[in-house]
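As a next step, we paired sequence with structure tokens, yielding the entry below.
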Amino acid sequence: MSEQPLTLDSVLTDEAVLSTYRRMFAALARDSGAVVDDPALVDIAETLFAAFAEAGEEWLTHEQMRFACRAYPTDQFDNRLRVLKGLGAIREVFPKPNQLRYRASFTSVVGLMFIRRMMDDGGQSEMHRLLALEDLNVADPRTTMEEARQSALNLARAFRLWALELITLTTGTIEELREQAPKLWGTEEIARRAQGLHGTILTRWPELDRVCTDLRASIYAYSDASRRAAGRLADSAGTTRNLTLLPTETWRTFAQTAPKERLAAVLDGFVFDAPAPWHDPAAIARAVDEAPRPAPAQPTPPALQPARSWS
């Protein structure tokens, strides 16, 4: 199969997509080809975006950006600024030589907000937003059947992948399941809204019954996987249902894998009373019987009185 000829329009379209991705994830890039490994680098990006928002139409110079990030080392700031410039998150106000003022990309700010929400709840809020938007779209009289088909396909793919991830968590370590616990909050509400969306699509476009069948199956798979994961999570919490307590598996893994120095360090700072002595009752009774008994004190005899004469 021969490749389609490269046209100017296709090149521009591809570059627009790539540039959006670059700006969206610029805050998470360590360089042009890798993700950051230090959270402080993301904080620098957020600090810069906040400074740009406060500056308004005055924009910012290099010195002003450095002042806004004065709490961070110079080398870290220079690295972040270079990466953000290279990926288009921060650009010159006007593309001309010796430009002194810079502006921030709206796409980068929104991308960072999206990423922060993903970090908070693992995508729960984004799924609620997506379902709310899709509800409005499929109820809109202007929505076409092809658009509804695409929405159903995208949601079916998302729920199927989500179910597979929850199944992996259910069969994996309890530590990972607890770390990903936010993905289990509000699952019933998400499934209910997705089923309502499925019913709307099927009612308006009966021709999409096959696509809706796939969507319904993926929703059920997600609901089943979430219930299983939630059940295991509840069991790991014990009768207290306190997820802040470490599970038994964590202690067992630590005891099996930690070196002796770390095991000994667990008790650093603790003071223990000496254990109380324990004796066998029979030994105590025998010791009492065999103990020497002191002789009782003899009373002093009374002094003899001299005899009286009766003459």
Summary: Strands lie at 29-31, 34-35, 90-92, 102-104.
